[in-house]
From TrEMBL:
The keyword Membrane applies. The keyword Signal does not apply. It comes from Domibacillus antri. This is Anti-sigma-W factor RsiW. Keywords: Membrane, Transmembrane, Transmembrane helix. Gene3D superfamilies: Anti-sigma factor, zinc-finger domain. It holds the Pfam family zf-HC2. Belongs to the zinc-associated anti-sigma factor (ZAS) superfamily. Anti-sigma-W factor family. Residues 6-38 form the Putative zinc-finger domain. Coiled coil: none annotated.
Length: 198
């Protein structure tokens, strides 16, 4: 094949591509009949083409993709969490906001936790951190008592809320609204949130 002209290899390619003319086709066949090396090379080219054409019908075995994916190394938890934060920035910001606001509210409630406070009204009396609604009086507003007790001997035309304390009702005492005792952190937090939106 080394002594053969390069044009013969070019003619083989044209013949295999189906682009050869009739005159050059005869010339190629004559050369292949006389040259064993070129005939062998031509046969190898035909085998290669047949192999490539048959390979297009080959499919991967069932489950091949799943097996390959199973063999890949697993992604670390840290990377998965970081990706989640990058893909959900709004949820990340909202949860961070809620966390900081919740921490601030709890801190505020703990600071406010130790001092005695109540709704200011001239008709209410106070004795040793106990707010007293005297007998025969009617309080026409809501009463809130923080870190103390309330004793109702008269009447309250509104709601009574006691935070971290007790309520005592005299037999003649009367409340027309709701009476609520709050002694847990979440109950107090809920009360503070409701009072913000009133």
């Amino acid at each position: 094949m080394t002594s053969c002209p390069k044009q013969i290899v070019h003619l083989m390619h044209e013949y295999l591509d189906g682009e050869i003319e009739e005159a050059t086709k005869k010339e190629l066949k004559l050369h292949l009949d006389t040259c064993a090396d070129c005939k062998k090379h031509y046969a190898e080219l035909k085998k290669t083409i047949a192999l490539v054409q048959s390979a297009s019908h080959i499919e991967a075995p069932a489950g091949f993709t799943a097996k390959v994916m199973a063999l890949l190394p697993r992604e670390g938890k840290k990377i998965g969490i970081e990706r989640w934060f990058r893909h959900h920035p709004f949820l990340t910001a909202a949860s961070l906001f809620l966390l900081l606001m919740g921490g601030g509210m709890v801190s505020m409630l703990e600071q406010d936790d130790n001092h005695f406070a109540f709704t200011k009204n001239t008709e209410l009396k106070v004795e040793n951190e106990t707010v007293i609604v005297p007998a025969g009086t009617v309080i026409e507003e809501d009463i809130v008592v923080k870190n103390g007790d309330i004793r109702i001997e008269g009447a309250v035309d509104g709601d009574v809320t006691v935070i971290n304390g007790e309520r005592y009702m005299a037999s003649a005492g009367n409340v027309t609204g709701e009476i609520e005792e709050i002694d847990r952190l979440f109950g107090r937090l809920w009360f503070e949130l409701k009072s913000l939106f009133k």
